[in-house]
Amino acid sequence: MSTIVSSGNKGKGVRSDCFVSVEITQNGGVEIILESKVNVMFGNAIKRLTNEILAFFEISNAKITIEDTGALPFVMAARIEAAIKQLVKTEKDFLLPFLPQNNYHTAKDRNRFSRLYLPGNNPSLMINAGIHKPNGIILDLEDAVACDKKYEASFLVRNALRNLDFYGAERMVRINQVPKGLNDLYFIIPHNVNLVLIPKCESADQIHKVNSRIDEIKTKHNITGNVWLMPIVESASGVIKSYQIATSAKNIVAMAIGLEDYTSDLGTKRTSEGIESLFARSQVVNACRAAEIQPIDSVYSDVADMEGLKKNVLQSKALGFDGMGCIHPRQIKVIHENFTPTPDEIEKAKKIVIAFDEATDRGLGVVSLGTKMIDPPIVKRAVRTIEIAVKTGKLNENWKEKQNAC
Questions:
Q1: In whole angstroms, what is the distance from residue 42 CA to residue 57 CA?
Q2: Which residues of the chain are under the pLDDT cut of 50?
Q3: Is residue 327 situated within a structural domain?
Q4: Among candidate residues 232, 247, 240, 235, the one with its CA nearest the CA of residue 290
Q5: Interatomic CA distance for residues 219 and 213, integer angstroms
């Protein structure tokens, strides 16, 4: 008796996806049954792609049913391959050409004000995510994917890394919790992922295991360039060990806190005031600053409350965070506007830097601005404010020359 396997999504509300059923037969060649609203325009192209994939895996006898709801080729290819690999043992991967605009790396000190979470098994939310200009796009293989869908989601995320236009956003993937997440790395490291998020991180050993697997994959595929890491601490144990985690590897560029799981671990409820998480958030910020990496705050879960989000961002910024996660594109603008320096902060920073430079040129050991003394940490903070203002276009990089000209 033959086995029928499936992959993908169908039903009311499903868009930009397809549901594929595959049955390997003994004879009769390839039979493709296609149900699609765009059959007239794209039916032949869909069947060509299907035949190409079947031929690639050397399958000459099969019955395949495709229920299409507007899937792009990379989505359909992922669904078909995921189904086939449940029936056929093979190490071959069917890969569509890599989009040239996705061939970029990101800097360690890149601004990471916002990172947009997208479910790794929902292509409709991925397709236009980049046009909202988040600093990072996270294709999530962990909590946003049902357990029985994680295998097929791996193929979709892999293909998205190759064939989805990220519009310059940092290309991120949240893997599953280690050790299960180590297998996710095979699907993402060869395809120019910029940053890997490691959820529920509680020890440096988990980081070492991830890096060991990354090095193994990079060696096998002759990959150069950095793959950055962002561990997420989500438990009391993780918070207490946050400095150990933050300093465990040179490719860690940021560390985030996940407050939903953290408050659950405490046995308390997350509130808008955030008193229950104040210690944990401060601990993470201090660990990151000591390790010289970026502290990243948790998501704000009420996507309709923009005023509440603004208050949360300002509180987050006051605690010392450099950014936070978001779960809806409408949150990005509020996060960016409130994490970037205000005009008053920029003006104050300019005055501090100018006063420091003038005092240094005159050989003075003491720097003052008005009646206040300026010490090195204040200057360092002012320089950082100006760097962010320049990166975000709020200040011209030649501001000092223009200031002197005036």
A1: 23
A2: none
A3: yes
A4: 247
A5: 10
**For the chain, what's the residue count?**
406
DSSP 8-state class, residue 300: -
* CA–CA–CA angle 301, 302, 304 (5° rounding): 145
Q: What distance lies between CA 262 and its chain's CA centroid?
A: 20
- Residues of the domain holding 397: 343-405
Are 17 and 51 in a shared domain?
yes
What is the DSSP annotation of 131-154? GG--SEEEEE-STTS-GGGHHHHH
- Answer yes or no: are the C-beta atoms of 66 and 46 closer than 8 Å: yes
For 123-171, how does the pLDDT look when each residue is reduced to its tens digit (9 = 90+)?
A: 999 999 999 999 999 999 999 999 999 999 999 999 999 999 999 999 9
Which letter does DSSP use for residue 26 in this model?
S
Half-sphere exposure of 58 (CA within 13 A, CB side): 5
On whether both 168 and 256 belong to a single domain, the answer is yes
121 within some domain = yes
What number of other Cβ atoms are within 10 A of residue 53's Cβ? 18
For 20-49, how does the pLDDT look when each residue is reduced to its tens digit (9 = 90+)? 999 999 888 999 999 998 999 999 999 999
Closest CA to 256 of 199, 172, 337: 199
- Tell me the C-alpha distance between 253 and 114, whole Å: 15
Q: How is residue 269 annotated by DSSP?
A: -
**In which element (H, E) is residue 46 found?**
helix 39-56
For the chain, how are helix, strand and coil distributed in percent, rounded to 5? 45, 15, 35
State the DSSP string of 96-143.
PPPPGGG-----TT---SEEEEEETT-HHHHTTGGGG--SEEEEE-ST
